[in-house]
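// run 5 | inverse folding | seed 20
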């Protein structure tokens, strides 16, 4: 009995004669907890991809970026990361509220290496110590880890970092306003208190 494969997975494995390989990967690579090596790898990442789905199972995939270490691993069964100001659609937060099942893909484009994490997520307001950890974050996303496994890295193209985003919030530093918030289609519908609203502190810049 497999813990992760369903009949549809097996059908393709049988078609391409990979049942033995898939079983071996489950046996030696698949795990229910983050190892120390996993946590160290995640702590060095400055971005990852997050897959969520709505109540009807329709998926979306988001890029999440921050400073290295913006994804925290408080313990071997938990991941935590911030939700910063975005485009106001709240697809990730809304999907998690409807359907907690998420998939995270961490990629090191220089080594290369990648790691998958699946689990159940929840979204809460930023409170207590997390306000200092994640300045300007709107929400805290917490993932209860269900399964972890590495992926073959052979198709990862090698990239090197040129510059980190200047829009990542930092304590004591004024975060710049993205240009799209000043466009005609957006500037009159920004939320109350947004610094890019007409008449706001950034409006004359």
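// decoded
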């Amino acid at each position: 009995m497999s813990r992760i494969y369903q009949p549809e997975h097996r059908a393709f494995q049988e078609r391409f004669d990979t049942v033995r390989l898939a079983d071996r990967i489950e046996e030696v690579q698949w795990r229910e907890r983050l190892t120390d090596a996993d946590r160290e790898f995640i702590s060095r990442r400055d971005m990852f991809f997050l897959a969520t789905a709505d109540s009807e199972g329709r998926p979306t995939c988001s890029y999440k970026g921050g400073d290295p270490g913006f994804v925290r691993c408080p313990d071997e069964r938990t991941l935590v990361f911030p939700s910063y100001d975005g485009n106001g659609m709240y697809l990730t937060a809304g999907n998690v509220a409807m359907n907690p099942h998420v998939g995270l893909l961490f990629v090191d484009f220089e080594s290369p290496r990648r790691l998958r994490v699946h689990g159940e997520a929840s979204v809460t307001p930023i409170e207590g110590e997390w306000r200092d950890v994640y300045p300007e974050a709107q929400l805290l996303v917490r993932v209860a880890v269900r399964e972890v496994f590495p992926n073959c890295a052979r198709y990862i193209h090698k990239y090197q970092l040129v510059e980190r985003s200047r829009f990542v919030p930092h304590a004591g530093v004024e975060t710049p306003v993205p240009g799209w918030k000043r466009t005609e289609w957006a500037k009159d519908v920004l939320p109350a208190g947004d610094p890019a609203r007409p008449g706001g502190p950034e409006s004359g810049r």
